[in-house]
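Re: that backbone. Tokens:
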């Protein structure tokens, strides 16, 4: 596809800012609000921030790595940018929608591209009840927390918590415990992407728990509902030789 109007956004690092200055001098560009495609310069954090920032527009975003890991980014090159954009493959991601009810009775909703995680707030372990599609699956999970992740987020916090890597086309979500104490041998579950997950906090005043959906943190939650939001489609652009599915496959063979 052709993207005649492009915009550049950059992270706060010197490398990202320098790249933005050089590219803006080399290519015609417009404000992000007017762009057909946005070029994000930075790391994965900047990519997530950009996806959230332009969530309502649905504009495709092409990342170039000026950060560290850059899992969601393409390699940085200044030449032939317009040709790279035209040849890029589109990957559509569907985020998670979290609805968290607090001990005080407030309800907070948020979108997460990577994962929704529940984390203990104090020295005491959390006690959680896990329900899938209205059926109780674990009556009491004693742990530091738990998370539900998308395939795109499966190589982030989920992988650090020893959760599985999910191929993009798998139509799955991963439910992964964080330092589970009881049931001791439970290592998590793979769920259909249409599954509706509810996690209830047992003893929420004695053992307070926070819920985090990307940049949104809700303290002292009592119950958290999580589902994939198919109404929202986030479009990422990847060079054909460096697409996201290939990266996810490669991650499973890194020693």
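Recovered sequence:
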């Amino acid at each position: 596809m052709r993207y005649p109007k492009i915009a550049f956004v950059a992270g706060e690092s010197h490398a990202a800012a320098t790249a933005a200055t050089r590219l803006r001098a080399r290519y015609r560009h417009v404000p992000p609000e007017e762009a057909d495609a946005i070029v994000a310069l930075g790391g994965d954090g900047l990519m997530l921030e950009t996806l959230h920032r332009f969530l309502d527009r649905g504009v495709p975003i092409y990342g170039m790595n000026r950060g560290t890991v850059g899992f969601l980014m393409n390699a940085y090159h200044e030449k032939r940018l317009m040709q790279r954009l035209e040849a890029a493959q589109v990957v559509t991601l569907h985020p998670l929608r979290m609805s968290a009810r607090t001990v005080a009775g407030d309800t907070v909703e948020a979108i997460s591209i990577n994962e929704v995680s529940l984390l203990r707030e104090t020295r005491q372990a959390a006690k959680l009840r896990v329900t899938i599609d209205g059926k109780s699956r674990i009556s009491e999970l004693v742990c530091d927390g738990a998370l539900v992740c998308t395939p795109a987020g499966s190589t982030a916090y989920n992988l650090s918590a020893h959760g599985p890597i999910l191929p993009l086309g798998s139509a799955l979500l991963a439910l992964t415990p964080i330092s589970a104490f009881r049931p001791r041998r439970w290592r998590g579950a793979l769920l259909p992407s249409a599954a509706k997950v509810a996690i209830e906090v047992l003893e929420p005043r004695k053992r307070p728990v926070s819920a985090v959906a990307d940049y949104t943190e809700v303290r002292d939650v009592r119950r958290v509902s999580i589902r994939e939001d198919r109404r929202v489609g986030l479009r990422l652009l990847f060079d054909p030789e460096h697409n996201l599915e290939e990266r996810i496959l490669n991650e499973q063979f890194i020693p």
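The two ends are 37 Å apart (CA to CA). Residues 6-93+233-251 form a domain with the Rossmann fold fold (CATH 3.40.50.10330).
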